[in-house]
Amino acid sequence: MKVWLIRHPKPAVPEGTCYGRTDVGTDDAHFAQVVERLRTLHGSADGPTPLQVYTSPLSRCARVAQALAGAPWPEPVVDPLLAEMHFGHWEGQPWSAIPRAEIDAWRENIRHWRPPGGETVDELAARGWRFLQSITPAANAGPTGAPEAARPAVAVLSHAGVIQTLIKQVRGEPLHRFGGMKLDFGSVTLLEHEGGQWRVVRENG
Tens digits of per-residue pLDDT, 189-205? Predict the structure, then answer.
């Protein structure tokens, strides 16, 4: 099976804002560009022909999924496991306004240190992995030996945090390097599951 991990369009927030779980809107022009690109990619050699669409509940993802809904894209399923990392009391603040001691503590132990009122990177990674495992049996039930183009695919609208941790877990890379990966707004990353193993086929496309 193929899983297309799609990052949401550019958010309509001031540069340098910690917005994580906050439900912010999107830049209208970039939203339209992302939707049109995904429509164009549909059914091509480089794009998803999804059997199922899943989306984060946050509107910057869910609006894209809803805009694509209708033949040939199916109606999306909202899954809270796909929401962005919860930064707790940091949410909505400029990164420059967050106490330096808290930022330093997080960077020194990025997997396990919890922003006040938020979640850890390990918790983010665990729920992202639970989602990926939950879709594997149903979506990978196609006939054995079916041509690659005929195998089922899933499109997932989510966020940089979820997508980064999934890529790292598939590759067996340490999570303590979380945050250093380039993932453009509206980008598409392709995972493939075959022979009981996940692999990253394309990143930040």
Answer: 999 998 889 999 999 98
